[in-house]
Design goal:
There is one protein chain. By secondary structure, the chain is α+β, with helices and mostly antiparallel strands. The protein is built from three helices and four strands, in the order H-E-E-H-E-E-H. It is globular.
């Protein structure tokens, strides 16, 4: 009896080369430094909240679209709310959730103003 191994189509992997990873990380860090309000882990992934300043939603939407291409193991959702832009990143498996958490593990945890 032959057993075929079926690969999970949502395998946790990133298709970027090292140089691309560095550039992408720099864009995320610049956006976070400019407008990040909060980042919180949850059971499905992460929730990042940004100030709705000029250009933030556009940059966040572009970065999320780029991540959907190279990191398709996670869902990337951007939505504006009252004065904020929310990015929800979620995975469907333990591995994908851990990968999402790891992707943003070195982000400084912004503090909301009281």
């Amino acid at each position: 009896m032959t057993v075929k191994k079926v690969l999970d189509p949502a395998m946790v992997a990133c298709s970027l080369q090292q140089r691309q990873l560095v550039e992408r990380r720099q864009r995320w860090q610049a956006l976070a430094a400019r407008a990040a309000l909060d980042i919180a882990a949850n059971e499905r992934g992460l929730r990042l909240i940004f100030r709705a300043e000029r250009g933030v939603e556009e940059e966040l939407s572009e970065l999320a679209a780029l991540e959907r291409e190279c990191c398709s193991f996670a869902d990337w959702s951007v939505r504006p709310t009252d004065g904020e832009i929310v990015l929800e990143i979620s995975g469907a498996s333990g591995e994908s959730i851990a990968a999402v958490h790891g992707m943003f593990a070195d982000f400084a945890r912004p503090k909301r103003s009281p």
